[in-house]
Amino acid sequence: MDKLISELISYGLKYHLVHIDDKIYVINRLLELFEKSEFQWMDTDTRQLDAILSDMNDYAIEHGLIEEDTITNRDLFDTKIMGILTPMPSVVRKLFQKKYIDSPKEATDFYYQFSQDTNYIRKERVAKDEKWVTDSEYGPIDITINLSKPEKDPRDIAKAATQQQSEYPKCLLCIENEGYAGHISHPARQNHRVIPIRLADQAYYLQYSPYVYYNEHCIVFNAEHKPMKIDKDVFVKLLDFVKQFPHYTIGSNADLPIVGGSILSHDHFQGGAYTFAMAKAPYEYMFELKNYKDVAAGIIKWPMSVIRLQSKDADHLAAASNEILEKWRSYTDEEAFIYCETDGVPHNTITPIARMKGELYEMDLVLRNNITTEENPWGVYHPAEKYHHIKKENIGLIEVMGLAVLPARLQKEMDILSHAIVEDRNLRTIAEISKHADWVEEWKGKYVITSENMKSILQREIGNVFVKVLECAGVFKRTEQGILAFKRFLSTL
Question: How far apart are CA 101 and CA 202, in angstroms?
Fold first, then answer.
């Protein structure tokens, strides 16, 4: 343990987590954690952080400091270790603000690297994510199988079920998570530091997602725990954000179930330094907004129904976005099976995305509708049931922009499927992959299949399914009838 503590302190000094003046203090904090009363410094080469922490976890298990050897318990303990090395929030915020004066990008570069150096973003797990690009008629579409979020151990699930639910923090996005020790059903956050920002003169915080589905995947959350709501204020805040961080894209999930994100209870946005496929989509049809002549408007070539607005004037752009939102909220077109509400329950909303294009502010407004029927209990504009074997979850902001976040189960299923297809086995007789059999029959005949090309074929066909899933979520279909219906809505503007 002396060697491991020496190694970890050397890491902390190297990555500026530990100041030389704090070296002895941090050593003593670690000795307290590991219940050691003596220490001898040992010069040693510094390995990768995950290797150091893994050995420290092994020591903690061997010496009874970790109750049970599960992923959750190991994560709770190694986050406690890193919490001792991580500088206080005030220190991190001052550094960020100092760098922001020179350059917003320099500030976020520092903060993103810091979030990795503290192991808040676990780089070794993120590196396991499977990623590829599928060409489509809408341009290159990004696909990822998310492996950075570890699956729960059955022992942890059983223990969490017996634990009393806590109201502190209220959710995973609340400011109270900063430095929180966590427990079996709530991740530890001792190494978590957030940056205060103001949007439209309201208090928000900037942080990164620990699972980084794309480069610099950031989350901007309200200082208050309040529900998400798409309104004019949201458009103003998104444009204010890209004004402050012009190198980032920012967007919001829709504010209704089915078409919304996973945490509708806490107002937040997601963004980052990544150019999504949707951002590259060209205008397909331009139209004029009667009340906003200085705002360019059009439909873009995308599987979902998207209106793109551009203007040099952020206030006009926010006002124009809000007018479209209000028109859409109250819009019904029975012929196109679009109902703004049924029995007083609203169905129409918008997923907005903002970015800078040179001197222009750009806003993409994705029209959403969450109506369900007996035939479509998951939602009429939700992935069709025939695609659920690949993707059945909600189509949220990230997918809307053209990045599929697919479940971890697919990695194992695709591996079994790959071997079974090459060996020409009957897929319906293999329990884990029988659900994929009909899908494989649809495309198998198009290819000369070998063990060498099987993986790339599967990736291409998974990508094709994701494009179909996005088309399912489009309220106006990309057919002659659908385009006419879209233009009927545009005529109200």
Answer: 21
Residue count of the chain, please give it. Answer: 493
Tokens 């829709």 locate to 254
Q: What angle do CA 169, 170, 171 make, to 5 degrees?
A: 90
Q: Which helix (H) or strand (E) holds 141?
A: strand 141-145
Would you say the pTM of this structure is higher than 0.90? yes
Q: Do residues 350 and 366 lie in contact, with contact meaning Cβ atoms separated by under 8 Å?
A: yes
Percent of the chain topping pLDDT 90: 90
Over its C-alpha atoms, the chain yields an Rg (Å, rounded) of 25
Q: At residue 298, what are phi and psi to the nearest 5 degrees?
A: -170, 170
Cβ atoms of 225 and 174 closer than 8 Å: yes
Measured distance CA(93)–CA(235) in Å, rounded:
26
* pLDDT, tens digit (0-9, with 9 covering 90-100), for 198-223: 999 999 999 999 988 899 999 999 99
Name the pairing type of β-strands 218-222 and 268-272.
antiparallel
Structural contact between residues 283 and 306, judged by C-beta atoms closer than 8 angstroms? no
Measured at the CA of 485, the angle between CA 480 and CA 488, to 5 degrees, comes to 130
Residues 6+ apart with CB under 8 A from 196: 93, 203, 204, 205, 206, 223
Q: Report how far apart, in Å, the C-alpha atoms of 132 and of each of 217, 403, 461 are.
A: 18, 10, 12
Contact 404, 144 (CB under 8 A): yes
